[in-house]
Amino acid sequence: MTATETIHAAVLHLAGRCDGATTRDGAGFNRYDAGIGRGLADKIAAGQPINLAVARKVCAKYRGQLERAGIELPAAEVVEVLAAPAPIQQQSAPAQPSGVKVARVGKQIRISFPYDPELVEIARGLPGRMFDGASKAWCVAPSALTAVLEAFPDAQLSDELHTELSEQRNAIAEAERARIARLSIDLSAFDAIRGTVPLYEHQVTGVRWLIEQRKCILADDMGLGKTRQALVAAKAIGYPIFVVAPAGLRINWLREAEAVDVQVEMFSWAKIPEAIEGDYTLIADEAHYGQNMKAQRTKRFLALAKHSRACFAITGTPIKNGRPANLFPLLVATDHKLGKDRRGFEIRYCAARETRWSKWDVTGAQHLDELHAKIADGMLRRMTTDCLDLPELTRVTRKAELSTEALQTYNATLHELQASYRARREAGLIQPGADALVELTQLMHAGSRAKVKGAVEIAEEIIEQGGQIVLFTRFLDSADEIATTLNAGRITGAENADQRQAAIDKFQAGETKAMVCTLGAGNVGITLTAAHTVVLVDRPWTPGDAEQAEKRCHRIGTTSNVLSIWLQANGTDEALDALLQQKHERIELVLAGKRKTLRGIGSMQDVIDAVLG
To answer: pTM to 2 decimals?
Structure first.
């Protein structure tokens, strides 16, 4: 079928099953679209032309129903080309009367027609509509004019409104031609970048989508490379790049920017500037930090987003805690149509109302399927299971954002151990390896305690997305605090065989969402394949032990790719991780017969000297 025939088929299918959701949900058009849907279907049946762009937009909300019927809507760009009107000349004759008249009266748009229950139903679906009994007409704000024309495509416009609309359409057509020309340039720039930056296929798709959207939400699952996608897209667009991110992720962003070969300027969420002059691309990482409309950082973020030429809001939890109210600021930042009417959004999707405790309670949630459909054009969300091009195991490092208290405790421990180590080394009291290893372990313990909060935050994000997670730590007190906070299962060596197996069975059955293990007790001999995410809060001494921990999830029985996050807090973690990676690579060469010894690689003493010396 052609694109036009496909849209006709979609409209007729939905209209044929529709009862306006009066008795059945998920069958045809809902009550808000029923009027326009039936009107479109009647025109198709009568052989009359319809507005293909409007028809596709309405049908796009019902992709699930259409896919089950074997109908796949054509791309919006294809329909835009088919539906693009020629520039309207001022002298064009007005539309023929159809019973519905639309005029601008003062600061309102007034819609009048002879009484017709179907037309009344359509009018009731207009945003902010109000019936004026004196004039017997429906009134809306001028900002709702587009919705009026979509709902009443055959309406007769007043001369004044017809002229105004003609000018608007010509301006929109000109702007669209400019947008398409710029898009072609940016996509060509991306094609040149692809040859220099490694990207998975799902990332290529994501970058193209970001470039095309300009302002949007990137909500991919953890581990799919949101940072790289955003940076590559921003580089292709070509404006200066400003990144707002938690302070603890600064180094990650700078490293990724270096890998992409692009300059960025970093701001923390606590120090967002009030204004930036000129054209720029704004990237907001962990964008859920800006989900409170009353917070100063949210207000500053939205001000930056408003004046940006492109804005990418990156978050794995766009609707944090399942509350649509938390999504609204991101819709505002990305200039989404649902972000234009805060009160209407809160009433429709947050079940907003006055309560005995609050004048305006927006903590509720309703019509989530409809919300999901309506934000699909401005949010890209893919799960790890959707990305078939990923390797079976992906290992990433992530900087933990430390609290001021945790950082002070760690630094105090570091300075104390450094002073002790240097004094005893100068006195000739250090036994190579043994004594220093004890002090390094003490320092790792301080780092482990500092990383507990960051580990819990990662776990909460995974659990909120419906996943399960396994966390490994070297130290019992860290394991206890993480497990208590998450209400998680435990394998720490303190359990007897029955308790250990019961914890594993509950986790594998999905009854508990997190499992906390200590290295040595939980990194061998058990299966935890219900989780697709592993966090190594602390590291073992050997690469083999690290792999054994990861293989609790990545083994026979695994149904998806596994993401392994090595949480880093300081130079100790970085030095140890570098050594483990170097050893792993050298061991692989030996096993492959390409190297005969492990000589020439660093040792644990090198790590000790780097950290304590």
So the answer is: 0.62
